Amino acid sequence: MLIRIVRMTFQPERTAEFLRIFQDSDALIRQMPGCLRLELWQDADQPNIYCTHSHWASAEALNAYRRSALFGQVWPATKALFAVPAQAFSVHQVSLPISQP
């Protein structure tokens, strides 16, 4: 499983536009093959900063979404609202053994 986090800083006056884009595309993204989870987070101190947190079955599934027509519509429309470029990274969850005292 691959976890993808994308941190986006929007022009403050354009956050409502982003929320409409996200609301309109949320269910469609969740239906993409390999999308296991999708959440939208808002920064607690800076209300124009949002993060998407998604889980994908594999890097291939994420890349297939990134090559899709849906992404081709959603990302350019979202990117046009940024105040600064987005920061995106993919991670894997780490499971450590429980240590005994």
From TrEMBL:
- The ABM domain sits at 2-92
Checking SUPFAM superfamilies in the record gives: Dimeric alpha+beta barrel (SSF54909)
Question: Which terms does the record give in the GO molecular function aspect?
Answer: monooxygenase activity
Keyword annotations for this protein, in alphabetical order, are: Monooxygenase, Oxidoreductase
Domain of life per record: Bacteria
Protein name listed in UniProt: Quinol monooxygenase YgiN
